[in-house]
Amino acid sequence: MTSQVSQVAIVSAQHSGSRFDQVAASLFPGFSRARIQSWIKSGELTIDGRKAKPKTKLAGNEHLVLEATLVPEGEWQAQDIPINVVYEDTSIIVVNKPSDLVVHPASGNWDGTLLNGLLFRFPELEAVPRAGIVHRLDKDTSGLMVVARTLEAQNALVSQLQARTVTREYRAIAMGICEPKGVVDKAIGRHPAHRTKMATVDSGGKPAITHFERLESFEGFSYLSLKLETGRTHQIRVHMAYLGHALLGDTVYNKGFTAQQLNKDQHLHYLSAFPRQALHAIKLGLIHPDTGLYCEWQSELPEDFSAILAYLNQHYR
Fold it and tell me: Which numeric CATH code is attached to 3-70?
C-alpha cells in the first residue's frame, strides 16, 4: 500500500546555520530520520523546489518542500492480536494496552506486538510511519495510548507531545511512604554501567519532569497518582527509584524484598509474586487533530493491579 504525501515547512531564523537534514527532521517530526535522508537524496524533499545535499546549511526563511510517495516502513506483519480499542474515528485510535504486550517490534520481540495487531485491525496504518504509534508504554505497563490514523493526525499529535500539552496520568504502587506530593525534575540518560537501564544524570541526559501525589498510604507502601510533562524511557520508574520509592514489582529498578523481610512477614510473598511493575496509564487527554477540541479518556485499573490494592488494604492498614 502506498500513498502520496505533500507538505511544506518554512525554516525559521533560529535554524540559521543548521544542516538541511537536521532541520527537516525537526520540521517533519512524523517521519523517521532515515526516511528524511532518503527523500533528500531522491529529490523528493527539496529546498525551495531545488534538490540539495543533506549537509547543506540553511539561512532561514527557506521553504522545505516534501512531495513524496509514502511506502510501508519496515517488514512488519499484520497479526490477529486482540486489541482493546476504547475509541476510534477517522483520525485517531485510543487503545487500552494490557501488560505483557510490547508496543513496537525490536530486538527480542520482532512480532506479537501491539503494532502487529494494529496493522491487522487497521490495514491503512501500513502507510503511516511507525503504524501511527506516537508514544509508547513499557511492555509491563498497562493503560491508555493514542495512535494516529493519518499523517496529518500523526504530525498534530507529535507536535502536542513536543509542546507537552498531552495529559498523561498514571497510577502506581511504590515502596515506602512517599511525600504527600512533589515534582521530580531530573534529566534521564543511559545508565553508565548497565546499558539496558536508564538513570538520572547530571549531564548529557534529556530533561524529564514527573509530578506525583500520594492517594493512599499503607504500612510500607504508597498508592500514587503521577503526571508526566515529558515522556522519557522508563521515566516514572527511574524518577521514583531516584526518590527511594521504586515501584512494586519493578525487577529493573527495585531490588525486591530481602530474605529476612520475607521470613518476617509472610504477606510479602504474595506481593513479591506480582509479575510486573505496578504502573497503569489511567488517563489520556489531548486536542483532537480534526476538531481542535480537548478530548479525554479514562480507564479502569486492571484486575491484577486492583487485587494488589485490595491485598494492601486488607493486610497493611
Answer: 3.10.290.10
pLDDT of residue 26: 87
Q: Is the pTM of this model over 0.90?
A: no
Specify the pLDDT at position 90. 96
Residue recorded with cell 506481593: 271
Closest CA to 212 of 243, 190, 182: 182
Point out the catalytic residue in the list 138, 185, 290, 304: 138
Q: Under CATH, which architecture does the 167-315 domain have?
A: 2-Layer Sandwich (3.30)
Mean pLDDT of 102-131: 90
**Architecture of the domain spanning 85-162:** 2-Layer Sandwich (3.30)
Answer yes or no: 138 catalytic: yes
Q: Are 47 and 7 in contact (CB under 8 A)?
A: no
296 backbone dihedrals φ, ψ, rounded to 5°: -145, 140
Confidence class for position 74, pLDDT limits 50, 70, 90: low
**To 5 degrees, how large is the angle CA 123–CA 37–CA 109?**
45
Confidence of residue 204 (pLDDT cuts 50, 70, 90): confident
